[in-house]
Design a protein that fits this description.
71 residues, mainly alpha, 2 helices, 0% strand
């Protein structure tokens, strides 16, 4: 299927991609923080909090990079 030339669908696709990137980075960061809390350190809930903060920072960075590539 060829890419859509309609600007509404193009913008919607970019917005969905950014939202998915943000959600995925939060899930991965929170999951790694949970694993660190549960299996590596006995520091509940601080590993998960740190993982969520790092995941949020990574997600915002990815969203910024994606926005820079827009036409």
């Amino acid at each position: 299927m060829p890419p859509s030339t309609d600007p509404i669908y193009t913008g919607l696709g970019q917005a969905v991609r950014i939202g998915t990137d943000l959600l995925a980075s939060l899930v991965v960061g929170g999951g790694l923080g949970w694993v660190a809390d549960t299996y590596l350190f006995a520091s509940e809930p601080w590993g998960m909090v740190a993982g969520l903060i790092l995941g949020l920072a990574a997600g915002i960075r990815n969203a910024y990079r994606s926005a820079q590539r827009w036409k």
